[in-house]
């Protein structure tokens, strides 16, 4: 491959990165180190700052303060077209007057790669996204999913050190999204480029990422692996945003951080953040068990409110002692006979009850 093409994945460092629009801070003091070759996802609700951060990395938006480092070197003064980063948008942004092959080969032509070499690299990129033989097609002859694959092929054809992806699957239906998620993960493993991916879809983030940065109000609330964030969220916001959960409200005595007190009940919990005072224990629905009303091993008395059959699981809404609602998800083989209106006892393992501070 030509020495004009970048081969090695790059690390990205964000240092107190800030973007101010008048009196509104879209991004505030973001510090983050992204390892070379990592699949990092920015996850958060609309307006949380994740896309603005991506655009500052790309060079589309000038930071108000802070810096973007690529392999330890500042690129703040480097224009977008010289940063060498690939970009995939939600819109396909294909040139309608060019063939698929010419669309994919466009970045190579811009870099002065010889025609014969361009053809070889285009074929390799299209093979990577499973579009072999589509070189002579017109973009209008392709489905939405195929057009997005062409956009992805165009972004990876010159092996950029960093590939930025802004909600690339947002315009596709669920079946296509699921299929392309698997392909994107496979492509990342194959080419080794550093991927930075923006989404508001929690399941997408969990299935794709090596690590996830959860955004809230222009800041990063927590960074971690999918399992870290799901099993050990640091804040109530992360717990609520990343999947469903049942929340038990009570008090933690500073002299006994391993228990949540709900009235006269002492409930064993996990307390990695050493929270004391008013607190909430979070338990994921699949870690809960519903037992018959007389079973003393259950910690709390609850009532089944509603049942949702999801094929592979059964989801039950329950009424908790304080009047709030929780969720239990029962897997095949572990399904109870309880039905809406029934009383029950709620049980779980102490390791699965994570204490969080109240907001």
Report the structural category: alpha+beta
Known CATH architecture of the largest domain = 3-Layer(aba) Sandwich
Quickly name the level 1 CATH class of the largest domain. Answer: Alpha Beta
Low-pLDDT runs of 5+ residues are: none
Structurally, the number of domains stands at 2
CA-CA gap between termini: 53 Å
> Residue-averaged pLDDT, rounded?
90
Morphology: elongated
Give a count of the beta strands, DSSP E runs of length 2 or more: 20
* Helical proportion, percent range: 10-25%
- Gyration radius (Cα, Å) is 24 Å
Trace the largest sheet across and list its strands: 6-7-8-3-9-10
CATH superfamily of the largest domain: P-loop containing nucleotide triphosphate hydrolases
Please provide the ordered H/E string of secondary-structure elements. Answer: EEEHEEEHHHEHEHEEHHEEEEEEEEEE
In this structure, how is the largest beta sheet organized? Answer: 6 strands, mixed
CATH topology of the largest domain: Rossmann fold
Number of helices: 8
- Which strand-content bin applies to the residues? 25-35%
